[in-house]
Design goal:
The chain is of the alpha/beta class and about 425 residues long. The protein is built from 11 helices and 18 strands. The longest helix is centred in the first third of the chain and has 16 residues. It is globular.
Length: about 425
């Protein structure tokens, strides 16, 4: 079934009796060529591109809960490619280009809104750093524009530009950045993968790996053993627990990242805005709520909830640039489970076990990377060679010293 405006009108006139399920609900087969563990955005995108780009039809996605119940539905929906380092910027620009054509490719309304993202500047040193970042973005084919305070006030006249501690001295804008409806991404990729023959199996938790003579032969699950030629792990904040079942210890810590939404208000923010003197980022949803977030909680946790000091810290950052934020009531908050790597950059690589692959360590960058992550991971699984934009995302960089330390904070993932 293809979606279209004509189809919506037809269903509206006929009582909406013609809509079918977006994907099949089926039992797992005894074996597959490829098993993707994790039914989030990255796992579903990997399965979709395996089928579409590489013609692989015997593919299964195993999700322990339900599609869209993990981090893909627990984020602030921001997409961007405003990175600095060569290991990151080409990859995230590739992802942004895939976002731009995603709805047409999937025939699904993911609500891609390129409303722009603005990083505020509060010091001369920060201006120099953002000039360098903007030039790096342009050299890698992305868009970047350095804005003056006067230019910023035309779009954001309510900003506290004369704040005594954090004066706003300009900003770095990426006009192609923006937001996407997070759960629609999961549903769109699930529907697209299913249409190409991928089996999406919910409520199927992996309990172990069958490894013999250094080769992974399949996985044990709550629904029985499932054999596979290749197994790809893609479970975000649960990466360490999953890979421990294969006797692997990862260079990853798991932390909670909280997000918040206010009550609905009249249109206020035309784009995404970030505080440069602290960690605060904010956009406005189509419902009118201000969606914002900040730092991770500073302790390891697998719980999808955080603590009150982080809420206070995030709100303080927001109040520094948007004093009127104090009059808005907080509607709700939630937490995602982040797999924080030791340099703040991801891993897409083969493991030492033949036939077992890993995708994780996405830190704050997971949602925006969804299309490129799926494409690059599918490329690795299908060809056993890394995609050209993901050649730096390897395990061995921690042993060889080739870290991709985007924020300059070394092995302190709690500071990223």
């Amino acid at each position: 079934m293809r979606y279209s405006g004509f189809r919506v009108i037809k269903e509206a006139l006929t009582g909406h009796r013609g809509w079918g399920p977006a994907w099949r609900d089926i039992d797992p087969k005894s074996s597959y060529d490829y098993i993707i563990i994790g039914g989030g955005g990255h796992g579903l995108a990997t399965a979709y591109y395996l089928a579409k780009e590489f013609g692989k039809s015997r593919v299964a996605v195993l999700e322990k809960d339900w599609i869209g119940g993990g981090n893909v539905g627990r984020n602030t929906t921001i997409i961007r490619s405003n990175y600095l380092l060569d290991g990151n910027e080409p990859f995230y620009e590739f992802s942004l280009k895939l976002w731009e054509g995603l709805e047409q490719e999937l025939n699904y309304n993911a609500m891609v809104s390129q409303r722009g993202i603005l990083n505020l500047i509060h010091s001369d040193a920060q201006r120099d750093a953002f000039i360098r970042r903007g030039n790096a973005m342009i050299l890698n084919g992305a868009d970047a524009e350095l804005l003056s305070t006067e230019q910023i006030l035309k779009s954001y006249p309510f900003l506290n530009v004369d704040n005594a501690r954090f004066p706003i001295m300009g900003g770095l804008a990426q006009h192609r950045g923006g937001t996407v409806r997070h759960d629609a991404v999961a549903w769109g990729y699930a529907r697209g993968a299913d249409q190409r023959g991928v089996d999406i199996i919910q409520n199927c938790e992996v309990t172990g790996f069958k490894i013999e003579n250094g080769r992974c032969l399949g996985v044990d699950t709550t629904r029985g053993f499932i054999g596979a030629q290749k197994v790809g792990a893609c479970v975000a904040g649960s990466s360490s627990r999953l890979m421990a079942k294969a006797s692997m210890r990862l260079p990853i810590e798991t932390h909670v990242l909280q997000a918040f939404v206010s009550e609905g208000i009249k249109p206020l923010l035309p784009g995404v805005i970030t505080f440069g003197a602290g960690h605060f980022y904010c956009s406005q949803s189509d419902k009118g709520g201000l969606v914002f977030g900040g730092d991770i909680d500073g302790y390891n946790s697998y719980a999808q909830r955080g603590n009150l000091p982080v809420i206070e810290d995030v709100c303080e950052g927001g109040m520094a640039i948007l004093p009127m934020l104090g009059r808005a009531r907080l509607l709700r908050s939630w937490g995602g489970v982040m797999d924080m790597s030791m340099d703040g950059s991801p891993i897409i690589d083969r493991t030492h076990v033949d036939g077992l692959y890993f995708n994780g360590g996405w830190c704050y960058g997971g949602f925006k990377a969804t299309p490129a992550s799926g494409f690059a991971y599918a490329h690795l699984l299908a060809t056993d060679t890394p995609h050209q934009t993901a050649t730096a995302y390897r395990f061995d960089r921690f042993a060889t010293g080739r870290m991709i330390d985007e924020k300059g904070m070394g092995n302190q993932p709690n500071l990223h």
